[in-house]
Amino acid sequence: MSELSEALARGVLVFDGAMGTELYRRHVFTNRCFDELCLSEPKLIADIHQAYCEAGADVLTTNTFGANRVTLAQFGLAERQAEIIRAGVRLARQVAQSASRPVYVVGSIGPLPQQPEHAPLLSQMIAEQVEALREEVVDAVIFETQPTRAALEQCAAAMSRTPEVPYILSFVVDGDAESAAGEPIERMLAPLPDGPQPIAWGINCGVGPDGLLLAVERAVKLTRLPLIVQPNAGMPKEVGNRRIYLCSPEYLTTYALRYINLGVSAVGGCCGTTPEHIREMAKAVKPLARAAVTRATLSTAAAPPPKQSAPLAERTRLGRRLVEKQWVTTVELVPPRGYDLASTIEKSKLLQQRGVSAINIPDGPRASSRLSPIITAYRIQQEAGIEAILHFCCRDRNLIGMQADLLGCAACGVRNILFITGDPPKMGNYPNATGVFDTDSIGMVAVQRRLNCGLDLGSQPIDPQTFAVIGVGLDPSALDLEREIDRFRQKVEAGAEFAISQPVFDPDALLRFLDRVQHLGVPVIAGIWPLSSYRNALFMRNEVPGVVVPDWVMERMAAKETREGQLAMGIEIAREAVARVRDRVAGIQVSAPLGKVETALAVIEA
């Protein structure tokens, strides 16, 4: 494997964005040969590479997209082809080598002319470009924006002349996941003929982030090779006779996260994207990638024999209810933004009096900054006499800090813990905060399981051992259901003892998920969110990751004209969901929209 191959296998990489867009922004017009600027304007090209590198790109793409003999001949530059390409590699390499982290350089080859008169020369034309790229040592060659399956096969066949050079095949599809020739993505990603195989597939350009989502959903299921996704910044709009890309960095980043959740290995940008797009993308994507990469960090050196963990029924009242298959009811209360817990505790007392089993305490939901959930859980248990389920997020602390907090939970009797990876800081009101993500929820489940057996993450003994009941989240409406099921399996294998789902508005989606995971034997508590209004439904549908609100729910909410009528409909829909899944789940977690616990009780006590 090449170094780039290994990097793609280890975690998610961020590719750079558009070169042509940046040149145009710097007042280089389209009558110039952009590739030749590697010779006549080297500082300009280097500055663009530097901007992408500083934005967080792990991979820089050479400014050689159109450096084939036919295209260069239109500018009278065919004789300078090799000189241009070698200069393009050197400029990118100099920037990469000056970085304080590993940065890779891939040599760009764009689509070749497809006119019949050029067909006999295509293999030789590719070989010329690859040879020049290889002379200056690129980490891989990337064939970008290839229009058809035939073009992909031409590129792959030409690489048989230089089998030692790693290469990537990247193609363009429309919103229906078809090539310009109407070929479905299944055809584009079909196995190649014998010969040197690519180290990765790519999808780039096309119709923008949303338009590529369908293609990505299908592509991740069609290949075991890493997949690189680089969308345009949307489709350009005509504004005052100008073609302008209006896709914001935040919008592109939202889709980059969706691609990552589907299982792609690298994201970047194509036409219309800028260093600002890549910066926002890198800030959101890299912490999540690091979490997956560093999951297996538990030391096993000279570890003493682990103790037997305490029986689940003896650790907490919740654990006993789960073992005895008693119906569990919990209500979610979000910690306050300040530090006055009086209202939260009064609500908890009411819920305890009404027979609720436990209070769910989120940890910085949607990357918000609130009162410590550990303190909130401790105070609720001490003053309201009801157990808490503490959500424990991996975003804000490193492994040492998280272990310290888990021991703190044990010391103050907070034993029901739901481990979640957490939303990236970009999603909240503190977008410049650093997401730590030393590990993810799977890794933290393993840490807590060891603590329950009397060993810390460094294999040091602790006495007494902890007595946590270990919970995890699950998303029955995930875009990539196979990946979600596999992650749930990993969570169970790491030590999960119960699960709470994302808010469920489509009960059938949860039932289908349960059909797939019931053999794992872990009780599932269904997340239920009684919608308070049509506006609340819009927010849940458009703004909350992992939540799917079906059209029929939106229609029923919209049918009520008053806020009171919409609240009543939201409660009715929630009650119907509970009735639909009741025989298949261990209980329900009901959210209290806007902190109104009476709304949650209206669902629980139906």
Task: Tell me what the structure shows.
The protein contains 23 helices and 18 strands. Helix 17 links the parallel strand 14 (416-420) and strand 15. The strands form 3 sheets. It has an 8-stranded parallel β-sheet, with helices on both faces. It has an 8-stranded parallel β-barrel with strand order 11-12-13-14-15-16-17-18, surrounded by 7 helices. The protein has 606 residues and is an alpha/beta fold. Helix 4 (42-55) packs parallel to helix 6 (81-98).
Annotate the secondary structure layout.
Layout: H1 3-10, E1 13-14, H2 20-25, H3 37-40, H4 42-55, E2 59-61, H5 69-73, H6 81-98, E3 104-109, H7 122-135, E4 140-146, H8 149-158, E5 167-171, H9 185-188, E6 200-205, H10 209-219, E7 227-231, E8 237-239, E9 242-244, H11 249-262, E10 266-267, H12 275-293, H13 317-323, E11 328-332, H14 342-353, E12 358-361, H15 373-384, E13 387-393, H16 399-411, E14 416-420, H17 441-452, E15 469-474, H18 481-494, E16 498-503, H19 507-517, E17 524-528, H20 534-543, H21 551-558, H22 563-581, E18 587-591, H23 597-604
Parallel strand pairs: 1-10, 2-3, 3-4, 4-5, 5-6, 6-7, 7-10, 11-12, 11-18, 12-13, 13-14, 14-15, 15-16, 16-17, 17-18
Antiparallel strand pairs: 8-9
Helix pairs in contact: 4-6, 4-12, 6-7, 7-8, 10-11, 11-12, 14-15, 16-17, 17-18, 19-22, 21-22, 22-23
